[in-house]
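Table 4 source record.
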Amino acid sequence: MNRLLGIVLAALLGVLAFVVPFLTPDPNGTEYGAKLAAPSWAHLLGTDQAGRDVLARIAAGTWVSLGTALLVAVITFAVGLAVGMLAALAGGVVDTVISRVIDVTLAVPQLVLALAIVGVLGPGHANLVLAMSVAGWAHLARFARAFASQQTERPFVIASRMSGVGRWRSAARHVMPATATGVLAVATLHIGEIVLSLAGLSFLGLGVSPPTAEWGQMVAEARGYVDRAPWLVLAPAVAVLVSVAAASLLGDALQDRGKR
C-alpha cells in the first residue's frame, strides 16, 4: 500500500513537472491587472502579488526544488557510498580516521552546518547544493560502512576471498551491489528531508534568486499576503508536503524490499 501511494504521489509530481508547463502560461509572465486573483478556470491556483500564475510557478518550481534535492541526493549517495566502502574495506587507521571525521560531521545538525557554509560562501543555487552535499554525506557514509562491514562477513564473500579473488575485486562483485542497494533506500528516505531543508534555506533568502520559481522562496514572498491570498502559501506548502510524503513512502518500500 505504501509503495502504491508513493508511486501515485511521485506520478503526480511527474505530471506537475512534465505536463503542467505545457498547459500554463509563462511562470514569470506578469499580469498586473490580475494581481492576487482568486483561483478560477483561467488561473486554477490563482495569481500572486505580481499577477503571475501560481500553478505555472509551482510547476516551474518542481524542476528547481525537486531537481536540486535529487542532485544533492545523488552527490551524497555517491560520496557516502565511496567513503563508507573505503572505511569498511581498508580497515585499520583509514577506518579510524574516516569514522572520526564522520562523527565530527554528524555532531553538527545538517541544517546548521549548511547555514554556516552558505553564510561563508554566500547565497546562490550552486553554493546551496554544495552546502547541502557537505552537510549530508556523513550519515550515508555511516550506513554504507555498516552495510559493507556486514557484507564482508557473508559466507559467499569469504568463499570468494578463499578462492583467491582479491579484496577489491571481491568487493566490487559482491559487496558493493548489496551495499549500494541498502544505502539507496536510506538516501531515498532522506530526499524528503533535503526538500524541507532546501525550502527552509530558500525561505531565508539563501537559495535561487528571484524571479526564479522555488517553493520555499514562494512561501517567503507570499507571507505578507496570507490574509488576502492564502493560496499563495498553501500551494507551495502542499507541493513540499507531497514531495516529502512520496520520498518517505518510496524509501520505506525500498527498505521493505531489501529486507526480504
